[in-house]
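--- STAGE predict ---
source: upstream dedup step, 1 unique chain passed
mode: sequence only
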Amino acid sequence: MSGGQVLWAVGNGDDPGSLPAGAERVVGAHLRRLRKERGLRLVDVVQAGLVGSAPTLSRIENGETPLRADRVLALARFYGVSDQTQLGSLATLANRSQDTQWWEEFRDVIPGWLARLISVEHAAHEIRTYEVQYVPGLLQTPAYARALMQRAFPDATFEDPAKQQARRERTGTVRQRRREVLQEAGAPDYYALVDEAVLARPVGGAAVMRGQLRELYNLEENTEGIRIRVLPFKAGDEAMAPAPSITYLSFPSEREEDMVYLEVRNGGSYVTNPELVERYRLALTTLWSKAATRDDTLALLDHYINELNA
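--- STAGE serialize ---
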């Protein structure tokens, strides 16, 4: 789409190796904004001796080349950044961009749109999600994830059944490895808003759904940095969301680098236009204000758990 609204939108089967990594994109966009705020052209930075050529700087700003922390810090200081917290965040992201990421070995089962999401999840300092159909991916239990893959997203190919099963198992491993982003040091703050319809839909049957709801209860009650709220049916039409699945990612720099991921079946799109990103942020803030309180959320979870016990 034009106007910078959607960064890209792809379906299943795209090569994640061809897509820019999250850390490089975030750092590059931040450096580009800093340069433009100083009124500097690409050639001005080259003439100052910070990079060898304008195309090199362009690749850095577009997230198309591996980053070196010393170069990133030199550029940031040249653009007037002196705050040590901001410089430290940029250095951390630059170093992270050089790491071999765990999902590289799962390219055969990770579509392009999901690979991009995983990479930016690791670069984010806050993630906010809204889901109207399913439990958010980062909170799914293995059993729930397997049921979702087998029933909601059946494999329509005519491959050997053993290959299909192996593919499902590798996809399930990816889903569980994704959850580690919420457990590692410096994990992003995570705010998950789920529609009450998610609790009422027994994906995988009573036992699987009961285990999933108990997991949500335990995460909200016991895990620092993870906040889960339910948007109840009684919230009415004032709590209508602009999309059924929204993920807002913010990064340790200015809000201009924030982005929104909108998921549909077998694909996803990324909103990067700052004005549109801000609209989604405000929509999520409004939805959160309409959600049940923490105590009422736990009570709703407990209610549906007991319903499944009946």
